[in-house]
Every structure is written in structure tokens, then in C-alpha cells.
Amino acid sequence: MNFLVKLSDGFMGMFQAGADTFVGFLTTIVPLLISLILFVNALIKIIGEKRVFGFMQRCTKFTLLRYTLIPFLACFFLTNPMCYTFGRFLKEEHKAAYYDATVSMLHPIVGLFPHANSAELFVYLGVAAGFGKVGNQSELGLRYLLAAFMIILVRGIITEKIARFLTQREAKKTTEA
Known about the structure:
Elements: H1 2-27, H2 29-47, H3 49-59, H4 63-66, H5 69-78, H6 92-105, H7 118-132, H8 137-176
């Protein structure tokens, strides 16, 4: 009987811990996210949507910017999932690589800018809690972001080459048929 009582207490304790965590998020992280989202939206309105989009369109002409700065700015300003809409400024042959680079940016950006992909925040906080015991959480966030810039550039370039190869192969099959 004592075993069943302990099992029941443990089972309910698990839900109580979840509820405590939820209340903690409501009093700390949620207001932070709302403030960041409001700030970013206000900044876009102040700068002007046409200016922001015009700048992005000019940047897409350069491979380095197309697969580093553009995914970062799209994630920062539009957040997930709207960040993919910046793909409309790219030529068709660059869209798959842009998507790949942007998807790869969505987790690392959370360490410094949690509003960008708030769904990933809970994963990051779990990692950061462990890292916080041995180091600085901001340092972890910065390292994540710097590593992400290298990774998304490489992934963007490789995906662009793969997409070009597959498109050319498909075009060749079509002309032969």
C-alpha cells in the first residue's frame, strides 16, 4: 500500500512541477517575448516595410548575405514561421537553399533573441540551464549564433548546388523525352 501512495504522490508531483514551471514562464518569459515582439514590429513600422523589404531584396544578390544575413534578419524581424516569406525576394533557384539556411538559423538565434522562435525557447532553456552551472548563458547564446552563421552559409551553398544539379538533370530528361 505504501508503494501505491508513493507512486501516486510521484505521479501528481510530476504535474505539480510542470504547473510550477508554467507559472514561472507566465511571470518571466512570456512578458519578455511579448515585449520583444512588440519592439520588433514597432521597429519595422518606424523603418517602413517597403524599406526593409527593399534592403532585403538588394542583399539577395550576394551569396554570403543571401545565406547568412537574410535568414538572420528574416528570423529576427518576422520570426518563425513568417521568416520563410523573405524567400519571395530570391530567384527560384535560390529558394530551396534559403529555406535550408533559414530552418538552420531558427534554433541558434533563440539564445540571444528568444522572440524569433519562441517555440524553441524551451529546448534552449534546458540546454542553457545545464550550461549556466558551468558558464555564462549569454556566452552560450553567442556561440550558438556564431556557429549557426557558418553552418547556414555552408548549407545554403551546398543546397543551392544540389538544387541546380537536380534542376539541370530534370531539364535534360525532359528534352530527351
